[in-house]
Write a structure and sequence with these properties.
This protein has 2 domains: 56 residues, no CATH class; 117 residues, Immunoglobulin-like (Sandwich). A hairpin with a 2-residue loop joins β3 and β4. The chain is elongated. The longest helix is centred in the first third of the chain and has 29 residues. By secondary structure, it is an alpha+beta fold. Helices cover 19% and strands 35% of the residues. 11% of the residues are buried. The strands form 2 sheets. It has a 4-stranded antiparallel sheet with strand order 5-2-1-8, covered by helices on one side. A 4-stranded antiparallel sheet has the order 4-3-6-7, with no helix packed on it.
């Protein structure tokens, strides 16, 4: 090795020795791992080499070949929880709860968050037919009740929504439901038939 400032040869340090000794082995290992992939693509094969396939299931199932109707019956409620905080004070939280009818043959449900920026690529998978989300919380004097609850809920309105779909056997999914805005108590009872 050479120093940048002069032409004196120096002995490599231990870290450099490790890399110098293993570099040819590392390069040959990379080539051995890439060779099946290169051969598969150069031969016009569209299949991935068996050693390169992933057995991990992704959270977004493939779209069904025949569109299955979405979940269409919903109810949303607001639930308040109040706890004693001592010294004549309370801690309170308001939860928004989204529930839907059980979908025939569903093994799970997937929920997707929707904001003004768009829909989240991450899905939440769950077994039950309800989702509960804390919307607002506060701590104040007991005599003030749920102080500024309505104003805080008003600020949250329109900021966040959820939509849901059923996951059936063979990783089939239904179409997405309509989106349900958080912070409001409503009931949706669509007249579509399954």
């Amino acid at each position: 090795m050479r120093r940048a400032a002069g032409s004196l040869k120096t002995k490599p340090n231990r870290i450099e020795e490790r890399f110098l000794l293993k570099e040819p082995l590392f390069v040959s290992t990379k080539l051995a791992l890439l060779l099946p992939l290169l051969l598969a693509t150069s031969c016009g094969s569209s299949q991935t080499a068996p050693s390169m396939r992933s057995d991990v299931q992704h959270s977004t199932p493939s779209a069904p070949s025949m569109a299955l109707p979405p979940i269409d019956k919903f109810s949303t409620t607001l639930e308040d929880e109040v706890r004693d905080a001592g010294a004549d004070r309370i801690r309170w939280s308001t939860y928004w709860k989204l529930c839907w009818d059980e979908y025939p043959g569903a093994i799970a449900y997937e929920l997707q968050i929707i904001t003004a920026e768009g829909s989240s690529p991450k899905l939440r998978r769950q077994l039950g037919e309800c989702l509960r989300v804390e919307m607002v919380a506060g701590e104040n004097k007991r005599s003030q009740g749920l102080l500024r609850r309505e104003q805080m809920l008003g600020l949250q309105a329109g900021q966040l929504a959820y939509r849901v779909r059923a996951v059936l056997g063979d990783n089939r999914v239904t179409e997405w439901s309509q989106s349900m805005a958080t912070g409001k108590a409503i009931t949706v009872n669509a007249q579509t038939k399954r």
